[in-house]
């Protein structure tokens, strides 16, 4: 079920109402049933994959805790292998096969790739990563294995964040799911604010940008330089609004149930550097890679060549996590490369990032936005050829009349989002709004409601991150 | 806490009511233009409208070789030069849309009559489950009977019948497979699938013994388009019931303009059983709607086969002669109500 559907607008109040009406001991069942239903609206049979992940990791964690020495490691590896194998089959099998075919044909050998005719289960990378973090934490001794299968299942399935994160740790989400939450007015109020704001930025901002960006990416060579440039920058805003909108709604839904989940975004386009960008963008994934890959590889406490390798590996894998395509890998790799260059530059020239906002920090922010926007081209383009066409159109099509498409709506809503971000900077929407006087708060509500109801895109676009 | 929440919900409801007013005065017409332009046109011309003519492409489809490019509504207007017939057209439109268009008539500027195109194929499964249905449903979202701002929001939530093409195709195949066609006489095929398969595998051959695929294809298409029984459960019947009731309630004379179908080809390609179904369905519609303030204009057999623009497909697109015949029939029926305005145009 999608957050931006009528079905969800009925589903949520029913679940919230029942949740607080039921005695605490039955609530986990409600959350379980609601989450299963939420997921099964997409492709019902794929719930079995989730059950498989849940069972494997639940049992593995028990075994890891109950055993010692190498046996623990065996259970951990078994659990991780099962999770990665699932990802491999559903997400990477065809990609691997096609590339194998290319290698064979390069050497003049014949190879007929056998592709699986399957649809990628929604949010598979999110569930597997969340579930893997649990077994790793149990292995490391930071987390006790959960004895109640229902609670653990709810940790993997929790409907507000199951299909596109944030990727939560058991210590935070799992433990909260076990607590008895009383209905508190502030939670309702904050939850409502977050859902309203999240829907606004998804439906009014992202969905108004999508048609323009789609048109340009459909055939960039027919568009002129300004149109293609606009699409490059607008896609940055679109993907941010899309994912930030989802995460904010997720936060709001969880809040209504009395549960706090982590912020996945902290105004990333106000970052002065690529490294700061990654501390503000998709925070739950960045911290996952940091905790479970970058630091175990030695992090930055190694010699420079090894550190470069670590960074590149993490970012290449992060790109691959997004999708089984070389363009995603390139996107990750470019980010890694930029981060390395930036660090080396800072070290070499002993450059210090300004703490306060001044002309230099504004210029650095613009530089980071422009850089990340151009790197997003590889993320958005379905092939290298398309990415190449985008860049070619920017350089060559200066004098072309372009196609008849308007970016006015998209630009207006992008400006609104950037303005909102600059107001929210380092805070959160509900916190900020809560600090306003009631009359201003209600003006904000009215504005958001009008924006949402009257200006949302008339075509509904699925959340971009659902495909991962 | 409950009191706090109730007060805030009421506050939000008030805000939405106020915002709805703002929306109606500022953005509604612009959105209507984008989504449902024909209704906006109808509203703009409400003061000058004497007769409204709701139709699909049968009204405006003309051919290059036609000696006159006038559409059916314009030709009908020639018989009543002092009246203004305003056409509201949309390709593939049907009663499910007309019923919403109708409710957009301003009660202070009611037309003297409404002519609604009654297209027999629009009752069949391929039209009901057509892939065009999703965009058609989208375009009537803004005129649904809810506050306009709510309609606009529902539109962005895609809260209408927005089944995918695959889902619609599945429903169509299911209907062809399982819906029984009833005849009052013995006939060996009782589903579209069975009849269609028989035609497909044993249809027409050239003198040299090879399959005559174009002819087989057309015959199969006639079966798929007309082999069905209209009954009370048909969704289009329910839509026309609504239209008839609405017009009766609002005291507007209603003319259901049953369009001509290529009976000749149906007979020669498929046979008398198919023609029987077509006529039986026509009789059902005439009997059901030809009462009170409603008149059915029966054009089913009015246009000869050669006057259809498309000779290799079923449709209701006619040459200028065909359109003249239909418009003349319409004018003849309108004459009863508008006798003082009538002139013999041709």
What does this structure look like?
- The complex is a heterodimer of chains A (468) and B (346).
- Chain A has helices at residues 6-21, 24-40, 47-66, 70-106, 124-140, 149-157, 170-178, 185-218, 225-256, 274-280, 283-294, 304-322, 326-348, 359-380, 384-396, 408-424, 429-434, 438-455.
- By secondary structure, chain A is mostly helical.
- Chain A has two domains: 6-183, no CATH class; 186-272 and 353-462, no CATH class.
- The model of chain A has no long low-confidence stretch (mean pLDDT 91).
- Chain B is α/β, with parallel strands linked by helices.
- Chain B has a single domain, classed as 3-Layer(aba) Sandwich (Rossmann fold).
- Chain B has 16 helices and five strands.
- Chain B has helices at 2-26, 28-35, 37-44, 57-60, 72-78, 95-102, 125-128, 133-139, 148-156, 165-178, 192-202, 213-226, 235-249, 263-269, 272-289, 320-335, and strands spanning 51-55, 85-89, 113-118, 253-258, 294-298.
- Chain B has a five-stranded parallel sheet with strand order 2-1-3-4-5, sandwiched between helices.
- In chain B, helix 2 crosses helix 3, helix 5 crosses helix 16 and helix 11 runs antiparallel to helix 12 (213-226).
- The radius of gyration of chain B is 23 Å and the shape is globular.
- The model of chain B has no long low-confidence stretch (mean pLDDT 91).
- Classes of the chains: A mainly alpha (468), B alpha/beta (346).
- The A-B interface holds A 4-6, 9, 183-185, 188-189, 203, 207, 442, 445-446, 449-450, 452-454, 456-460 and B 1, 4-5, 8, 11-12, 15-16, 18-19, 22-23, 27, 31, 34-35, 138, 149-150, 152-159.
């Amino acid at each position: 079920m999608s957050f931006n559907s009528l079905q969800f607008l009925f589903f949520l109040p029913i679940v919230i109402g029942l949740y607080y009406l039921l005695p605490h001991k039955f609530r986990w069942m409600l959350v379980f049933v609601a989450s299963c239903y939420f997921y099964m609206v997409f492709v019902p049979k794929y719930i079995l994959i989730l059950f498989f992940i849940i069972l494997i990791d639940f049992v593995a964690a028990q075994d890891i805790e109950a055993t010692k020495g190498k046996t623990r490691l065996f259970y951990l590896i078994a659990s991780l292998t099962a999770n990665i194998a699932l990802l491999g089959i559903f997400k990477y099998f065809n990609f691997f096969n096609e590339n194998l075919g290319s290698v064979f044909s390069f050497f003049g050998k014949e190879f007929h790739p056998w592709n699986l005719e399957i649809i990628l289960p929604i949010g598979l990378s999110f569930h597997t990563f969340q579930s893997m973090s649990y077994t790793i934490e149990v292995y490391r001794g930071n987390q006790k294995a959960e004895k109640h299968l229902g609670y653990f299942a709810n940790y993997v399935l929790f409907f507000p964040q199951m299909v596109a994160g944030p990727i939560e740790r058991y210590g935070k989400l799992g433990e909260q799911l076990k607590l008895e939450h009383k209905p508190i007015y502030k939670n309702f109020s904050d939850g409502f604010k977050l859902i309203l704001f999240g829907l606004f930025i998804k439906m009014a901002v992202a969905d108004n940008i999508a048609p323009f960006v789609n048109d340009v990416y459909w055939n960039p060579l027919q568009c002129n330089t300004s149109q293609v440039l606009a699409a490059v920058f607008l896609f940055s805003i679109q993907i941010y609004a899309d994912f930030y909108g989802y995460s904010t709604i997720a936060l709001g839904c969880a809040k209504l149930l009395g549960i706090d989940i982590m912020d996945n975004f902290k105004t990333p386009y106000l970052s002065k550097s690529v490294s700061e960008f990654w501390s503000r963008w998709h925070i739950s994934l960045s911290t996952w890679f940091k905790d479970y890959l970058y630091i175990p590889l030695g992090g930055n406490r190694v010699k420079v060549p090894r550190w470069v390798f670590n960074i590149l590996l993490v970012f290449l894998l992060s790109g691959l996590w997004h999708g089984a395509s070389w363009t995603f890998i390139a996107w990750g790799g470019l980010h890694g490369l930029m981060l390395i260059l930036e660090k080396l530059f800072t070290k070499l020239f002993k450059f210090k990032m300004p703490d306060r906002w001044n002309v230099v920090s504004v210029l650095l922010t613009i530089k980071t936005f422009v850089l990340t926007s151009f790197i997003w081209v590889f993320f958005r383009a379905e092939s290298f050829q398309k990415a190449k066409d985008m860049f070619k159109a920017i350089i060559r099509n200066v004098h072309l009349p372009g196609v008849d498409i308007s970016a006015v709506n998209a630009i207006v809503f992008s400006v609104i989002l950037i303005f909102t971000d600059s107001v929210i900077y380092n805070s959160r929407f509900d916190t900020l709004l809560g600090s306003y006087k009631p009359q201003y708060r209600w003006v904000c509500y009215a504005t958001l409601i009008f924006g949402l109801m009257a200006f949302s895109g008339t075509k509904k676009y699925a959340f971009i991150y659902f495909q991962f | 806490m409950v009191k706090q929440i109730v007060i805030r919900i009421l506050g939000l409801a008030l805000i939405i009511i106020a915002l709805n007013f703002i929306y109606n005065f500022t953005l509604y017409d612009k959105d209507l233009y984008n989504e449902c332009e024909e209704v906006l046109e109808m509203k703009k011309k409400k003061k000058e409208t004497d007769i409204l003519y709701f139709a699909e492409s049968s009204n405006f489809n003309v051919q290059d070789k036609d000696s006159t490019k006038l559409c059916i509504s314009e030709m009908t207007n020639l018989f009543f030069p002092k009246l203004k017939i305003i056409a509201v057209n949309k390709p593939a439109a049907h009663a499910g849309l007309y019923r919403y268009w109708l409710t957009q008539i301003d009660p202070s500027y009611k037309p003297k009559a409404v002519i609604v195109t009654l297209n027999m194929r629009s009752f069949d499964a391929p039209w009901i489950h057509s892939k065009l249905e999703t965009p058609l449903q989208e375009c009537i979202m803004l005129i649904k009977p809810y506050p306009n701002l709510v309609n606009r929001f529902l539109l962005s939530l895609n809260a209408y019948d927005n089944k995918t093409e695959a889902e619609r195709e599945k429903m169509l195949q299911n209907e062809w497979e399982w819906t029984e066609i009833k005849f009052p006489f013995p006939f060996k095929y009782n589903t579209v699938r069975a009849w269609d398969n028989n035609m497909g595998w044993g249809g027409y051959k050239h003198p040299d013994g090879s399959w005559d695929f174009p002819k087989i294809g057309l015959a199969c298409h006639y079966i798929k388009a007309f082999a069905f029984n209209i009954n009370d459960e048909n969704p289009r019947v329910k839509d026309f019931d609504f239209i008839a009731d609405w017009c009766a309630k609002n005291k507007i004379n209603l003319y259901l303009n049953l369009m001509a179908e290529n009976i000749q080809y149906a007979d020669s390609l498929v046979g008398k059983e198919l023609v029987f179904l077509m006529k039986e369905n026509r009789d059902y519609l005439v009997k059901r709607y030809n009462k009170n303030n409603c008149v059915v204009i029966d054009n089913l057999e009015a246009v000869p086969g050669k006057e259809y623009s498309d000779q290799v497909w079923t449709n209701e697109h006619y040459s200028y002669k065909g359109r003249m015949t239909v418009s003349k029939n319409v004018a003849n029926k309108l004459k009863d109500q508008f006798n003082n305005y009538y002139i013999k145009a041709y």
